[in-house]
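Hi support team,

I submitted a single chain yesterday and got back a structure, but I'm not sure I'm reading the token output correctly. Could someone confirm the output below corresponds to the sequence I sent? I've pasted both exactly as they appear in my results page.

Thanks,
R.
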Amino acid sequence: MNKRIVWSAALGLALTALSAGGPARADEFPSHPIRVIVPYAPGGGSDISTRVVQNRVTELLKESLVVDNRAGGGTLIGTRIVGAAPPDGYTVGVMDPAFLITPSLFAEAHYDPLKDFVPICLISVTPMILAVPSAFPVKNFKEFLDYAKKNPGKLNYGSPGAGSAGHLAIEQVRNAFSLKMTHIPYKGSGPAMTAVVAGEVNALMSGSALVPMVQNGQLRGLAITGGQRLAGLPDVPTFAELGYPQINVQTFAAVVAPAGTPAAAVHQLQSAFAGALQVPEVRRMLEDRGQLPVGGSSEDLGTFFKENLANLVKVVHDSHIKID
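Hi R., thanks for writing in. Yes, this is the structure output for that exact sequence:
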């Protein structure tokens, strides 16, 4: 009888310890490194944004962020990895406009950006810069419009690929002014920028990677999207300043997680990314690269996604873009 009492007491103590300690450990998020999927090769805008905030987010979470570049499939490879990951907060993705618009362009995408993912935090927004080769015979956006209208069908423009933010941005310009121009898609922003610098294409719209090329005179910046001029390009006006606020496609870097990720993990991640974006040095590094730091709540990012999706879908519809 005494042995049974001793064993029962020991078992009771063990169960009590497990019930007290088990859930507590499970609630400790994060308890190991977090994988951050970037659906592009290293060096692009989303990758740069991620690496700028990486160290500070690591400090705030007290766990490492491991950046995992998974390029390919028009961002589908990386996006699918995030969507298929366990919804535990340990796999997140840093996405750009392709994340929102790809399901409208590719029948095989098979995901809903608003239902299959949880918004966490908006790292940055980056205006799109309309640039032409330095030898191209226009000095400003008005001259560009006049030239394009006088030479219908003779101008071409490059993009990082069909359906990319750069493609949709210049399509928005083309539609607004009924310009007849030929689209030349490239396999990424690097080849597209090389082509416009070499004069192989007459125009390109891209993000912050164009800033140094405009600064050093390889390209001429004509106008940018967004609500404010870039600090690195103070002489390049916004489309809104020129009277065309409807030209508004921008790129961005936003953190998402698989649908079903626990609210506690979402909160911890959002707090860390938003907190990192309050650090002056982090903000300065983003701004130096032509990116405007944002932050904000998960709900803010959800609203941002809905507004941008509606805008991008309209561009796709107006341009009759469909990619099989």
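A quick pointer for reading it: The two ends are 76 Å apart (CA to CA). Let us know if anything else looks off.

Best,
Support desk
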